[in-house]
Amino acid sequence: MSPAPHERPLPACASRWDNAPNLSDYTTTYVQFKWSQAQQMLLQGADTEAPYHLNIAHLIVDRHAAGPLREQLALRWLGPDGQTRDYSYAQLSALSNRFANVLQDLDLGPNPTVFSLTGRVPELYIAALGTLKAGGVFCPLYAAFGPEPIRTRMVAGKATVLLTTTALYRKKIAPIRASLPTLKAVLLVDAPDSPNADDTNYNLQHLLTAAAEHFVIPPTTTEQPALLHFTSGTTGQPKGAVHVHEAVVAHYMSARWVLDLRPGDVYWCTADPGWVTGTSYGIIAPLAVGATLICDAQEFHPERWYRILQEQRVTVWYTAPTAIRMLMSHGAQTAAQFDFSQLRLTASVGEPLNPDAVNWGRTTFGTPFHDTWWQTETGSIMIANFPALAIKPGAMGKPLPGIEVALVQRQEDGSVDILDTTEAQGELALRTGWPSMFRAYLNEPARYQQCFAHGWYLSGDLARRDADGYYWFVGRADDVIKSAGHLIGPFEVESTLLAHPAVAEAAVIGKPDAVAGELVLAFVTLKAGYAATDSLRRELLGFARKRLGPAVAPRSIEFSGPLPKTRSGKILRRLLKARELGLPEGDLSTLETSEPDSDNAPK
Ligand code: WT7
């Protein structure tokens, strides 16, 4: 049977390739590959006697700084107003040594947890690497978070150190400083010249200058925690996914196989460093292979982005569907003024990549976007469209060698049924044991256990497998919202709305949006004595935005009558969503029947 038109594969992209892709025979490699081989490849030439040879920062920077890549550009920062700052592997190694010494000199105790709350600045890379060298755990936060999401995460992660800017400190940290008892030092990237404004706030530049450039990494094991990334679930507080030093093995292999990176590539990952993509594929994976990173300090801007691709001669570009759709909506004329002939591979992650976007990439850049799928919990790319394989526009691709994927159906007794037909649809599950698998949800062992059944990690995503073994994204199995690539937990938003004196009940859903994928929509029931007016709506939107920040706060609020609930009192967000979208309401057997007709809702 010939594939449906939307499933018809595009030929593999090889036109701009002088050499074969790093992964040229997917099928054979998939059958033969073992993760132990990857570790050997990564450690080739390494001094495996050194007790720190498995430390991520040693493997991705110091090792290159001690070899032929020593003077190669590791990081080029494009600042505001056209200034640039360049760092070779040797310089990045020396500066991260200094940062490690800064942490040691501050006498913070063993394994400090270093949070960052900054935009895209070079100090973020230096701090991440220096923290790993010092045996600490690095936890990036998104600078567009408001004080509330920041506080929740820093308290849960027992932050020891925070890297931030003066402006962000004043606006977001000063109001919550008193509720962060574990925080011993704030390192200000851009503090004015008077150092040590108070006891715990330091000017990072002064500390770096004063610190020694020589640092010996303490012994590091593969299972030592390295990174902490917060992610959101349907219920409860955000979850802190813990990753260990061994994760670098998966970052390295996926950088080679999926992004096809090699030493000398100019690589641009547009992801914000406050999310897992920004560290896994913005820092670790590309440095592991010896590429040059481009870091753009500024926000999205179509012309500047095209100019960066052209002027920096970017060869490999990793971006996200929302950005691609924003470029598409900006029109073809702008793109046509630029030369993208050096671009060898473009890839995307974070949300469904529509077939139009894949094809638009081919027309505009001469190479289609390669969709990739993974999660905070998986730590690295699990499913991808590989350069040597035909792309099916709209499909996420095939599993990486070393990754066993199944589609499963959860049973009521907690077990799972594996759907073993060639074509199937179910929850996407991954056989446990890949190097970058999260090792814990911080302080929540039960929640961690719930993600696994019979040796499978259950992703919470629904997917379909076609006759050729490609996986297609179907939807989330839970109520989390994906807006502009950012995962948003409805509970976090609802809790903030409930803190307003007028709000009796709140439920939050993702409303489809052509560019951002979904936008946050809140349904709110008011307490007696409050009228559903436009000015109250504006007040609530402002209230939420101030506390949550623009990336998380609802975009719109609808005043509603009592919200639909199960008999046990759980708000049925799915039903609200179905009603909002005019979709079938599904199984309502658990619905609490005393719910008044929604026509009674205040308008
Ligand atoms: C969720 C994970 C993106 C990695 C880092 C952020 C959705 C991810 C795709 C894709 C459709 C995708 C899933 C997943 N997602 N990639 N290619 N197509 N959906 O990870 O914030 O933990 O988000 O993003 O729903 O579970 P995250």
Uncertain runs with pLDDT below 50, 5 residues or more?
595-603
Q: Per DSSP, what share of the residues sits in E-state strands of 2 or more residues?
A: 15-25%
- Annotation field: number of helices: 18
Structural class: alpha/beta
The rounded Rg comes to 24 Å
Overall morphology: globular
Number of strands: 28
Strand order of the largest sheet: 2-1-11-10-12-13-14-15-16
Distinct small-molecule ligands in the complex: 5'-O-[(S)-butoxy(hydroxy)phosphoryl]adenosine
Plain-language structure description:
This protein is of the alpha/beta class. Strands 2-1-11-10-12-13-14-15-16 form a 9-stranded mixed beta sheet. Strands 17, 18, 19, 21, 22 and 23 form a 6-stranded antiparallel beta sheet that branches. The protein has a 5-stranded parallel beta sheet with strand order 4-3-5-6-7, with helices on both faces. The chain is globular and about 70 Å long. It starts with 25 loop residues before the first helix and ends in a 22-residue tail after the last helix. Mean pLDDT is 92; it is low at 595-603. Residues 231, 276-277, 349-353, 371-376, 396, 459, 461, 473, 476, 482, 487 line the site of 5'-O-[(S)-butoxy(hydroxy)phosphoryl]adenosine (WT7).
Q: How are the elements arranged and paired?
A:
Elements: H1 26-32, H2 35-42, H3 56-65, E1 73-78, E2 84-88, H4 89-105, E3 113-117, H5 122-133, E4 137-141, H6 147-156, E5 161-164, H7 166-173, E6 185-188, E7 201-203, H8 204-210, E8 225-231, E9 239-244, H9 247-257, E10 266-269, H10 276-288, E11 292-296, H11 302-311, E12 316-319, H12 321-329, H13 332-336, E13 345-349, H14 355-365, E14 369-373, E15 383-384, E16 398-399, E17 405-410, E18 416-418, E19 424-431, E20 440-441, H15 445-449, E21 452-453, E22 456-465, E23 471-476, E24 481-483, E25 486-488, H16 490-498, E26 503-513, E27 517-526, H17 534-548, E28 556-559, H18 573-581
Parallel strand pairs: 1-11, 3-4, 3-5, 5-6, 6-7, 10-11, 10-12, 12-13, 13-14, 27-28
Antiparallel strand pairs: 1-2, 8-9, 9-20, 14-15, 15-16, 17-18, 17-19, 19-22, 21-22, 22-23, 24-25, 26-27
Bound molecules: 5'-O-[(S)-butoxy(hydroxy)phosphoryl]adenosine (WT7).
